[in-house]
Amino acid sequence: MFKTPDGKEIFVIDGHTHFWDGSPENQANIHGKQFIDCFYAYHTNLSPEDQLWEKARFEKYSEDDVYRDLFIDGPDDMAIIQSTYLNDFYKNGFSSIERSSSMAKRHPERFIVNGSFDPRDGEKALEYIHYMKENFDIKGVKMYTAEWNGNSKGWALDDPAAYKCFELCEKLGIKNIHVHKGPTIIPLSKDAFDVHDVDHAATDFQGLNWIIEHCGLPRLDDFCWIATQETNVYGGLAVAMPFIHSRPRYFGEVIAELLWWIGEDKLLFGSDYAIWTPQWLVEKFWNYQIPEDISAERGGVQLTDDVKEKILGLNAAKLYNIDVDAKKAELAGSPVQIAAE
Amino acid sequence: MLVANLKAELETEVWECLDAVTDPELDEPITDMGFVERIEVTDARKVRVEFRLPTYWCSPNFAFLMAFGIRKEVTSIPWVVEAEVQLNDHCFGEKVNEGVNSGRAYHHIFAKYCDGARLDEVVDTFLAKAFDRRQETVLLGLQALGHDAEDIVSMSLGQLRCVVFSGEEELRQLPRYLDLLVAQGLASEPHDLAFPSWDGDEIAPHELRAHLAKLRGTRINMEFNGALCRGLARTRYKEVEIGPDGPTLIDFIEGRVPSREELAARG
Fold it and tell me: What Rg, from alpha-carbon coordinates, does chain A have?
């Protein structure tokens, strides 16, 4: 719960968080080391100085850290934990559904744990979707199209094998497909961050919600175009958020484009924890206004309190069928507990 | 000492020629971005350039293009007989290094990784983005000087060359814009229009605002990467260790060599 300076309580769903293990013990090879190193560089470069973590804690943080950073020190009411396997890089996966679910079990009222699958696994991917539904009753999945899998260095959402998986998701009621577009390596002739596969998949699967993390950046214009055409495409603000601190004017330009093209009902806040923590992001976001000249270029769009409230939680609540008033009452009955020192 | 001076002079010459190599995705010189890690000239004829990108995962197609760009610029220096380029610490590094030093054209070497398409298509795509970004800076600069839409869209190349800008970014981008305009054959004579679109179309006065909105979109994308890359590069180069022979020219240029006061303070 975020309390505004004038005392209003804002319901916050953190749409993009992880419980990962990137520690040297779990790294399978140099790629595993380089992957967490890259995350750490994002952390050190875009965080305010007083928010920096030691490398070892960043590589592997505890269940207590998650609870404290998100709900005690942080303003989150709920957090969506995403799964990312990277089995070619990490012995037990980078952030597996089993490990995240076991962490979430301590406070089930506060977490939504999403699964993940790799369509290139064929039949096994389909079996895995069944397994995740039966054992963890997942409502969503996280797709990472730049993941390596043997000789393949990436895949596209409109690959035939992916379509089989999405058909099954739709059938089982796994409705929220979060997509991360990382750099795709091969073919080299292709723009590595191409987002056009989102267009095809979203058109062909109208019953699914497509949440594109970091709004397709660095292909924001393509993403905006697609999201404007497709009613079931949403933008996740993870990675765009921290620019609010390091380059606030630039953040304003990005948000103005998004509000103009896609609108206030289709944007979701995400801290990308543990790369960044929600406390400072939400605070700065609440205090932020798009500079007037930037807003004027985009029909006067602005981050009003109502718009911010939607982005911080109400939009995600709709996608995950969360009754916000009931949830607020439930959480009020089980306030955050600070472990006895 | 004379030998050492000559070596430093030649290394500086190589460094300066690398200003012409840009990161295609950011349209910034690789020297400005701090990607060049080491330059070594041997026997006043052999050059070895090492570079490193902000992350291990940076797109290999851009890495290839930069590696080839480096080789092309270095081998165009008259005294250079042999050039070697090395990309350090990258997920596709071995392939890039093998390719760039084989002496063959990149579209031959990398055909097998391109599904029959050519890497040139990527080059064209990103050249168009670079054009948009440079043009936006110049257009916004003109607006700031009080030129109206009518004025701007009808401005000729000759007139543009006479405009006096004062902003740092306009001064930096204007010559880069003119270079690309001329190189692409979009304008060459003084009476040619200074601001065609990348496709060579004229822009009508009432279309200027929409045109600028499109250019802004291109810049927002490029700045996202640019901001991340600069930051990530800064962190990554902290790891670079000064070689056993002591700091090189590039170590000094890139500020990797601690000052005497800093060393004294460390005790």
Answer: 19
